[in-house]
């Protein structure tokens, strides 16, 4: 196939839909016979994923790689920022944490070239293997106060000589000002890279925006390549926890009610997408005590700050509600940080998470966790009742099982990946554990009268990628897009 120019989907702001549009184009280029790969130089997210070779990247780039039909790699997201409980973020470079930095420290000009060179080298390696590179910007490309330290938006577009497509969200209002204002705040050189505009999240009859589309093109001198509708029936894993607010719905009759405890530093909530799509389940996120009591299954999810969230669970009464649910025989499970909180104690002698060195857990599982500065990132395959299952681990800390005999207490020598008391009470470090149908069927078994056909989550995701690509083709001028990426540079 002929070589295509890199294409970058940049935004007028955050949460305008850049990730979903980039995902759509990863699948479109794959369908058209190319070998695309995603790239986002810098991502800030608590949702992350372990690559096949045991490194960490943003979950959005892992999803885009899946849509592109290629294994994910750290070169697709060389720089990941994971917010902590204090005003700092853990900096993950090329898949490994290199320390915590405050925003004022991270955005200093000093030392910036080291990061810039690292993301450039990652892009070059990726570009040598794939065609085209589907790039994604971060937030708004018109943050002029950050122009000198930018390594993810127009600075990266210039380096890659990418064709930039500006994505704007019409649903939030002010789309004309957002598009025009963004372009006017770019330098002349930066504007030359912007080759098209996509208006996203349109509700209603699109013919009503025909005049608006023409006006934007006249104002900006750049073609509007398409107006995408607000996709309500296409489900792609989301990266931002903003979306969880829409899923804080109370329990309903006739389904298995699953409450995911809404932690302040909740991470990897994509662990529960499979339950959200399962027709037997009603899943909701909550830290409301009454709603927790109404649930059949309570899940303690992953967290970036286990100790801080453990303290918050006690403060807001959720800890007592979870303990009561366990006492009443309801199902209580924990994943990653949630697994750590279900134990007897959490120790942090190195002060990895903060000043508190010791705190009691919920005491549901006979385990003790000791935090450490070493992060474990690995994909895992495990056997469950004779069936092969997959998942991945991303965590700091080692969890050991507690054994008691008389007055003697000892800890297991090997760290515990999963601890099971009963089918209704267990914890695991394995993210994606619920993507395995046999485990979900056993989780739901006490609450469903008869097992329905097992939900094939992988087949469902493939269907959604293809549907997203088909709908995007319907509303975007793909002939014009190919004209742009095939043009002489």
Describe the SSE topology.
Blueprint: E1 7-11, H1 18-31, E2 37-39, E3 42-44, E4 48-50, E5 56-58, H2 59-68, E6 79-83, E7 88-93, E8 96-102, H3 103-106, H4 112-129, E9 133-136, H5 154-160, E10 163-169, H6 175-184, H7 188-193, E11 194-202, H8 210-220, E12 224-229, E13 256-261, E14 266-267, H9 273-277, E15 281-286, H10 289-294, E16 297-300, E17 302-303, H11 306-315, H12 318-327, E18 331-335, H13 337-341, E19 345-347, E20 358-360, E21 367-384, E22 387-405, E23 408-411, E24 418-422, E25 425-428, H14 437-444, H15 457-475, H16 478-486
Parallel strand pairs: 1-9, 1-10, 2-9, 3-6, 10-11, 11-12, 13-15, 13-16, 16-18, 18-25, 19-21
Antiparallel strand pairs: 4-5, 6-7, 7-8, 14-17, 19-20, 21-22, 22-23, 24-25
Helix pairs in contact: 1-2, 1-15, 6-8
Walkthrough of the structure:
- It is a single chain.
- The protein has 489 residues and is α/β, with parallel strands linked by helices.
- It is 31% helix and 29% strand.
- The strands form 6 sheets. A 6-stranded parallel β-sheet has the order 2-9-1-10-11-12, with helices on both faces.
- β4 and β5 (56-58) form a beta hairpin.
- α6 runs parallel beside α8 (210-220).
- It is globular, with a radius of gyration of 23 Å.
- The protein starts with 6 loop residues before the first strand and ends with a helix.
């Amino acid at each position: 196939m002929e070589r295509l120019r890199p294409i970058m989907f940049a935004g007028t702001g955050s949460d305008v839909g850049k990730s979903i549009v980039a995902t759509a184009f990863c699948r479109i280029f794959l369908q058209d016979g190319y070998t695309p790969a995603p790239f986002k130089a810098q991502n800030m997210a608590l949702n992350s994923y372990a690559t096949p070779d045991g490194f960490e990247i943003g979950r959005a780039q892992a999803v885009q790689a899946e849509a592109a039909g290629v294994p994910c790699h750290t070169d697709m997201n060389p720089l990941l920022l994971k917010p902590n409980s204090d005003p700092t973020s853990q900096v993950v470079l090329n898949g490994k944490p290199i320390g915590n930095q405050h925003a004022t420290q991270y955005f200093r000009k000093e030392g910036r070239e080291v990061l810039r060179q690292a993301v450039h080298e990652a892009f070059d390696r990726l570009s040598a293997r794939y065609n085209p590179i589907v790039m994604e910007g971060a937030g708004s490309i018109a943050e002029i106060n950050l122009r000198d330290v930018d390594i993810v938006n127009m600075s990266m577009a210039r380096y890659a000589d990418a064709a930039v497509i500006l994505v704007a969200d019409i649903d939030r209002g002010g789309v004309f000002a957002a598009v025009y204002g963004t372009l006017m705040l770019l330098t002349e050189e930066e504007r030359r890279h912007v080759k098209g505009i996509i208006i996203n999240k349109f509700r209603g009859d699109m013919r009503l925006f025909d005049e608006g589309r023409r006006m934007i093109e006249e104002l900006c001198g750049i073609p509007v390549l398409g107006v995408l509708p607000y996709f309500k029936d296409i489900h792609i894993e989301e990266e931002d926890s903003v979306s969880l607010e829409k899923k804080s719905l109370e329990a309903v009759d006739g389904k298995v009610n699953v409450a995911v405890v809404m932690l302040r530093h909740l991470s990897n909530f994509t662990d529960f997408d499979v339950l959200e799509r399962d027709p037997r389940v009603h899943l909701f996120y909550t830290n409301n005590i009454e709603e927790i009591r109404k649930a059949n299954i309570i899940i303690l999810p992953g967290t970036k700050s286990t100790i801080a969230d453990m303290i918050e669970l006690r403060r807001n009464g959720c800890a007592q509600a979870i303990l009561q649910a366990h006492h009443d025989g309801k199902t209580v499970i924990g994943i990653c940080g949630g697994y750590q909180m279900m134990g007897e104690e959490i120790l942090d002698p190195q002060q990895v998470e903060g000043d508190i060195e010791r705190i009691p857990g919920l005491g549901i599982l006979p385990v003790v966790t000791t935090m450490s500065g070493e992060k474990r990132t690995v994909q895992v395959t495990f056997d469950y009742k004779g069936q092969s299952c997959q998942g991945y681990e991303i965590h700091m800390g080692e969890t050991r099982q507690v054994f008691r005999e008389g007055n003697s207490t000892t800890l297991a020598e090997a760290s515990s990946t999963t601890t099971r008391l009963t089918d209704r009470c267990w914890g695991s470090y394995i993210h994606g554990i619920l993507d395995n149908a046999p485990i979900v069927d056993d989780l739901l078994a006490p609450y469903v009268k008869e097992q329905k056909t097992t939900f094939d989550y992988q087949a469902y995701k493939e269907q959604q990628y293809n549907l997203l690509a088909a709908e995007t083709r319907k509303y975007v001028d793909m002939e014009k897009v190919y004209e742009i990426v095939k043009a002489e540079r």
